[in-house]
Protein: NAD(P)-dependent oxidoreductase
Organism: Cohnella ginsengisoli
Amino acid sequence: MRTIAVTGGSGKLGRYVIEELRRQGYQVVSLDHRLAEGLPCRQIRVDMSDLGQVAGGLKGADAVIHLAAIPAPVGYPHHTIFANNVLGSFNVLEAADLLGIRRIVMGSSTSCYGFAWASKPFAPAYLPVDEAHPQLPQEGYGLSKTVSELSAAMFARRSGLEIANLRFSLIAAPEEYERMAADARHPERFVNILWSYIDIRDAATACAAALTAPLEGGSISLNITGDDVLSEGDTAVLIAEHYPEVTDIRANLRGTAPLFANALAKETLNWRPFYKWR
């Protein structure tokens, strides 16, 4: 495996992923609707809603990391976000299947569980939230990630594609930590995301690790989150104050332990988050 196509390579995470892949010795091509100045790889301008353009851009790649998407339910109507993200994901999977590309890493989100953008806030069924927790989105973005994961599972069943759906928490870049540290003094600001985050550098290494992890011709979803909460308070205090109705606690949540379980990602990818907001 030498050449990796990264969709959304001009985006926030895409740039870090490309740098990480190049550091590991891969050749990289970026597929995006816009060209980015200074991106250290070949770039192809692609409309992700056009299957032909996607297939043309992916030709010659050995694997795909699909990050192109509207990244949150803001700035566009819900139907636009849903249509853009779902069709783009389907086209990547279909094109990969047609071209004989077997390994796809899909950028998903913990928003698929529904807490982050819920118009009617609700509590988790249990804590920490693992990949088996029900997906209960109330808006187009979280729903788009849920449907894209279902599409991935269909392609795995039909064609034996090997697909890792990486459910990223809030992706934090180093230059954002000063502001986040100030917000961490106010736990109510991150309650809807269960105080979860992932450093962008750790998100990039997870993408790279998913290229070679043993998936055995299936589709798997993995929480890609940090090892602590985005709060100055301890995890047990956060639960008691903000989610007292959750009594099904399935792990020893000592200290600042995270409320999205990342053990499956660690085991499957042989990966660990290294950076912390503190």
